[in-house]
Amino acid sequence: MVLTKTADDISSMRIRGAGRIARTAAGALQEYGTSLDCDTLAAFVREMENAADILCGTRPTAVSLPNAVRFVMQGVQGSTTLEEAQGALNKRAVEFIRDSLAAVGKIAEIAARQIPDDAVIMTHCNSEAAIACIIRAHELGKVREVYATEVRPRNQGYITIQMLSDAGIPVNFIVDSAARMFMPKVDLVITGTDAVTANGAVVNKIGTSQIALCAHEARKPFIVAAETYKFAPRTILGERIPIEYRPIEEVIGSERQLPAGVVVKNPAFDVTPPAYVDLIVTEIGAFAPSYAPFVIRDHLGWDTSEFQKDYAFTHHYGE
Ligand SMILES: O=P(O)(O)OC[C@H]1O[C@H](OP(=O)(O)O)[C@H](O)[C@@H]1O
């Protein structure tokens, strides 16, 4: 069944990257809804809510996932007939996917303006938004070279260097622990994000906060490329973004042995405090992290009454 397969692809990281996960979830909801043979609106909504729960349960950290699901499901839940719900599902899924792709292009355009001539850029993990910014700056003739980290344990750095190399950008590939050593050679750091909290903290691939700390120490700008659906509304209430811990086999591999009793920890993400973030570039503009609550209220449209609703654990789809 397509839904179970998509859920499995996301949790196993065959489909990964916060934006891609969000678009895939929107597309999967649409496909699943089209395949349903329900006689009543209530049955359709129930099936769709169940599907939404399955998708939202795949990976806990990237808020793009529940934000995308919420956007699509609002059309389903707000309909008064079955036909209206089916139409709204299709319309909203298509709209989300289209706007998500367009947002990456806009972010790249805005961020490229922030990048100085002859820039040496460091990036971490594999973010389509961050890479789009670097490639756009390269098209404008502004990029000298990039330092791309390996990104243990899943090694997404290899995907990044392939994408940058394919675009004709000179790349230095370094292990994660070499970031501080090379920071003096770098003009700025740019990464993506899985979630931006209401106070402007950036949740991104494990190791990001160390790189931001090094950038801060070396007085190098730390820029985050973030579509607005990466902002986490419910953090305004003080809710925390859960950090995903992944299987320990990702870290130790099968060829390594550890003494009995050793605890292996494999957090996939960390939190960079707003004090270490210079600029967040979104499709609606570039701003300081302190502007995050206004994005949530004014752009994502979460007003105070929405926050006060008594949400059940499931079916709220918004962080
Ligand atoms: O949405 P885009 O910019 O592509 O990626 C944003 C972030 O999503 C990724 O998470 P993972 O590799 O799925 O764990 C990385 O942490 C990356 O920085």
From TrEMBL:
Pfam families: IF-2B (PF01008)
InterPro entries xrefs: IF-2B-related, IF_2B-like_C, Initiation_fac_2B_a/b/d, M1Pi_N, NagB/RpiA_transferase-like, R15Pi
EC number assigned by the record: 5.3.1.29
Annotated keywords: Carbohydrate metabolism, Isomerase
Gene3D superfamilies registered for this protein in UniProt: translation initiation factor eif-2b, domain 1, Translation initiation factor eif-2b, domain 2
A biological process from GO: pentose catabolic process
Annotated residues for binding of substrate: 16-19, 59, 204-205, 230
Active site: 125, 194
Kinase is among the record's keywords: no
Keyword Nucleotide-binding: no
Reaction catalyzed: alpha-D-ribose 1,5-bisphosphate = D-ribulose 1,5-bisphosphate
GO molecular function term, any single one: S-methyl-5-thioribose-1-phosphate isomerase activity
Additional information: Reaction proceeds via a cis-phosphoenolate intermediate.
General function of this protein: Catalyzes the isomerization of ribose 1,5-bisphosphate (R15P) to ribulose 1,5-bisphosphate (RuBP), the CO(2) acceptor and substrate for RubisCO. Functions in an archaeal AMP degradation pathway, together with AMP phosphorylase and RubisCO.
Family listed: Belongs to the eIF-2B alpha/beta/delta subunits family. R15P isomerase subfamily.
Name assigned to this protein: Ribose 1,5-bisphosphate isomerase
